[in-house]
């Protein structure tokens, strides 16, 4: 497919989502990593327009917070219906801008549909507790209330899914949303936003409960610094989190941070190696290593490493690399040149620090697409967990090391600054239990006999340490978007003080 054909396909998908004639003469230039060439120039939000969007969202919040939560859930239900209807259209936009296979792009939209289902149910389950009072004729209870405007800053690698986790829950909780997507994926954002705008109109909800600002870092700073934004939910690098967190805290706002991941798996002596092989290769090479949950480190027991490693290398050599519009392709492009250069720099450092490249590492298809960056997923055998291994490189590099006992493996596993996702492959129940116990993995996600990537919306998603500590999606993550109030109701006709205090 030529760039011209891709341009036509993208315009058609945008129109199907309800976005009419987005092209402008000057503005934000979008690009496709599939070809490395420009797609569509769209209007860029100014700082003044971003502040006005926050003001509109704040005014809408004053109405939206008093709408009953199950009614608020109706908007999200309708959004889910529209996402289902336009799943392929939105997936085409995700593929064009993020470089995913259509299967993965449709899977991302399916995550949006799933979180809508989850949030609709949650709209009837925003429970508070009732507690016994020490005073007769009194009742203690807690109630949960909306917090206000939620600012969402999302990343390119999941341009719509992670945003939807936040948005669906924030809306049913009674908050309003201002979304700044990655400027690398503005078209996907426009499609998702327009479908939500249609859901809002179809259900008669306040028109301004959702705002989209399409711009770069300067507009992101507006969300971070504006005191009207009660919660900033930001997905990105640890460096970004170090900048965002203190600035939001300085104004006593809330932060929900999803930052770096340096995810690892342990392969135990008892592991089913066939199952481990499939789990490792997908987690390490899928999405060209550009998932926050991508497997980047592998600790293999010394008794099975010589059997497993040739199988991993052989599997890597069978991976089809290229334009993922070809359904036979498994590995698409890196997002841009900076990602490619970062990958090459990390490979060079690994070799300097004693590593041996077992497979991959080269750029391919350069003659066919000189401005696109297709690479071979790489496996590097490392003698130890050196400095480069402790750093996250957002590319398909898997560092392999050996261990002799489980305590050593867990110590190595935890000896990095990041703490997002983890896995162990074992058929030993005791080993599995240790890995997910308090003395095991220190990550927010600890899996047994599956890889590190591939989260379901029913479980809260997030990590510890430099990953930021935030939780999105399932479980009780709705609480991040609400404030808790403790209420004491006195129906006794008397006024006894707590703790038996006497005053009058």
TrEMBL record:
Q: What is its EC number?
A: 1.2.1.3
**Pfam families membership:** Aldedh (PF00171)
Q: Which residues form the active site?
A: 258
Q: Which UniProt keywords apply?
A: NAD, Oxidoreductase
PROSITE patterns reported for this sequence: ALDEHYDE_DEHYDR_GLU (PS00687)
Q: Which stretch is the leader sequence?
A: none
Organism's domain of life? Bacteria
Q: Which residues form the Aldehyde dehydrogenase domain?
A: 26-484
The GO terms this record gives for MF are: aldehyde dehydrogenase (NAD+) activity
The UniProt family comment states: Belongs to the aldehyde dehydrogenase family.
Provide the assembly information. Homotetramer.
Q: What is this protein called?
A: aldehyde dehydrogenase (NAD(+))
Q: Which organism is it from?
A: Corynebacterium testudinoris
Q: Which gene encodes it?
A: ALDH7A1
């Amino acid at each position: 497919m030529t760039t011209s054909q891709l341009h036509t396909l993208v315009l058609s998908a945008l129109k199907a989502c309800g976005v009419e004639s987005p092209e402008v003469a000057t503005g934000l230039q979008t690009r496709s990593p599939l070809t490395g060439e420009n797609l569509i120039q769209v209007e860029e939000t100014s700082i003044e327009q971003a502040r006005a969007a926050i003001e509109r969202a704040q005014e809408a919040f004053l109405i939206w917070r008093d709408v009953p939560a199950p009614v608020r859930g109706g908007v999200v239900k309708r959004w889910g219906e529209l996402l289902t209807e336009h799943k392929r259209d939105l997936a085409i936009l995700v593929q064009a801008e993020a470089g995913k296979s259509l299967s993965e792009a449709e899977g991302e939209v399916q995550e949006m549909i799933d979180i809508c289902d989850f949030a609709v149910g949650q709209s009837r389950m925003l429970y508070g507790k009732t507690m016994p009072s020490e005073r007769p004729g009194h009742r203690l209870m807690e109630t949960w209330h909306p917090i206000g405007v939620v600012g969402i800053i999302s990343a390119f690698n999941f341009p719509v899914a992670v945003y939807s986790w936040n948005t669906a829950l924030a809306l049913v909780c009674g908050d309003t949303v201002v979304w700044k997507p990655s400027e690398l994926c503005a078209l996907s954002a426009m499609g998702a936003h327009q479908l939500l705008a249609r859901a809002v109109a179809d259900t008669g909800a306040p028109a301004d409960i959702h705002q989209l600002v399409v711009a770069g870092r300067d507009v992101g700073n507006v969300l971070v610094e504006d005191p009207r934004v009660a919660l900033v939910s930001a997905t990105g690098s640890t460096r970004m989190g170090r900048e965002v967190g203190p600035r939001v805290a300085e104004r006593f706002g809330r932060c929900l941070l999803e930052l770096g991941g340096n995810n690892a798996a342990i392969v135990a002596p008892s592991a089913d190696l066939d199952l481990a092989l499939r789990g490792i290769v997908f987690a390490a090479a899928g999405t060209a290593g550009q998932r926050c949950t991508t497997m980047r480190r592998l600790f293999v027991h010394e008794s099975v490493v010589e059997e497993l490693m040739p199988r991993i290398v052989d599997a890597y050599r069978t991976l089809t690399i290229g334009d993922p519009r070809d359904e036979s392709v498994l590995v698409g492009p890196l997002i841009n040149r900076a990602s490619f250069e970062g990958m090459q720099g990390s490979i060079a450092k690994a070799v300097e620090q004693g590593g041996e490249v077992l497979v991959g590492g080269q750029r391919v298809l350069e003659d066919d697409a000189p401005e696109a960056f297709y690479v071979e997923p790489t496996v590097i055998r490392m003698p130890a967990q050196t400095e480069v291994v402790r750093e996250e490189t957002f590319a398909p590099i898997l560092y392999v090391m050996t261990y002799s006992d489980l305590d050593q493996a867990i110590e190595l596993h935890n000896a990095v600054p990041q703490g997002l996702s983890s896995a162990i492959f074992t058929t030993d129940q005791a080993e599995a239990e240790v890995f997910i116990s308090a003395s095991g993995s220190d990550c927010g996600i600890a899996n047994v006999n599956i890889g590190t990537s591939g989260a379901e919306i029913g479980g809260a998603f997030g990590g510890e340490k430099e990953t930021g500590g935030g939780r999105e999606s399932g479980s009780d993550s709705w609480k991040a978007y609400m404030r808790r109030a403790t209420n004491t109701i006195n129906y006794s006709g008397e006024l006894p003080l707590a703790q038996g205090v006497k005053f009058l």
